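Quick log. Single chain, no ligands specified.
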Amino acid sequence: MNTGKSILYCAMLALLAAVLVFIPKTASGQQNAEPQPHMQAALQQLKQAQAELQRAEHDKGGHRVKAIQIIEQAESEVQAGIDYDNQHDTENRGRGVSQSASAEQKVPLFRLVLNNDHFYTTSTAERDQATRDGYKDEGIAGYVASSQIPGTVPLYRLINNNGSQVQRLYTASATERDSAISQSHYKLEGIAAYVLTSAEAGAVPLERLQQQGTGAYFYTISRPEADAAIAQGRYKNEGTCCYIWQH
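-> predicted structure:
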């Protein structure tokens, strides 16, 4: 079996595993199934598989991209199961009540940098590999949802690697994602995290800045840091990318 087919086969196995985890509650079953450890475990395993595929070389005859798409579909199906449970959980049901993320649903968004490439990830394995590759660990940029919950949307991660310079783009806009792919030579690396589209208690704007000349993007929740980047690093503030939690 060639490398491309092997990747696709592994992705199909991941999708099957996720579907098998999605088992309905029994009639006598537990209506309060939070935090749904099996469903969450499936999501984490799918994310790990997705991260490995994203790090793989691109010369896989299109099979690598298909595998990533299959895993994203699996993530969506598992998340749909979690959302279904939340919607039918009488303790969580209510009108006009914002379901803010619990501590268990939040994960740190790690921030690293190498030259002008600012890299953000929720994966400790990916963070550690990046530091081995020469990236500087700048700590935690903020906190994001580990899976999609009400009020959040995917934060897409894209990369433009022309051989001499790596640029990453993070966006919560599917329209911008598609435009970057079709017009600016970016490639989709997957979903970096799930973020808020509007402010809520404990959440702050994640500002996006772009460096003039290089086109490199930089993201921060710190207004002084954004101002310094504008004054000293020739960055231009492009506004709020999304909202994330400070803690």
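DSSP finds six helices and nine strands in the chain.
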